[in-house]
Amino acid sequence: RIMKAQAYAQREDGADYYATQKKSLEINPYHPLIKQLLTRVQDDTTAAEDSTLNMAQVLVDTARLRSGYSLQDSARFAGRIEQMLRLSMGVDVNAKVEAEPVFERKPEDKKEDDADKDDDEEEADDDDDSASKAKDEL
């Protein structure tokens, strides 16, 4: 979007010019997130390495999104976000989603559903008849 906005006043070749230019990401070393990332990187624990790398990648991806660019791999971005949410909420990263329970229907429920379907079909037939009558009147 930014490229298009900047190149709007120029000819079509201007868009190609901006698309081929090298992009730069400026990092504020005084930002609290950057300070925490530096602390984590300097820490020697292996367990923190994976989450630190994910946090850095999410930081870069969100900067891309804020700048109006699209992500090449949105599924991977969503996976990183989900992992961060799981960690922040104390949910096991490897926990699986439970299967939805399947409930058996009672015979009485089936009869009610069949009756509802019949009513719906009758209403649809009535609507079709009234629509055709309205056409005839025009």
Gist of the model:
This protein is mostly helical and 138 residues long. Helix content is 68%, strand content 0%.
Tags for this entry?
mainly alpha, 0% strand, 6 helices
Task: Please give the count of helices.
Answer: 6
- Class from helix and strand fractions: mainly alpha
Radius of gyration, whole Å? 29 Å
- The N- and C-terminal alpha carbons lie at a distance of 49 Å
User: What overall geometry do the principal axes of the alpha carbons give?
Assistant: elongated
What is the chain-wise order of helices and strands?
A: HHHHHH
Number of strands: 0
Q: Extract low-pLDDT stretches.
A: none
Mean pLDDT over the residues? 75
The proportion of residues in beta strands is under 5%
Largest sheet: none
Report the helical percentage. 55-70%
Strand-helix topology:
Blueprint: H1 2-7, H2 12-20, H3 32-42, H4 46-66, H5 74-89, H6 107-137
Helix pairs in contact: 4-5
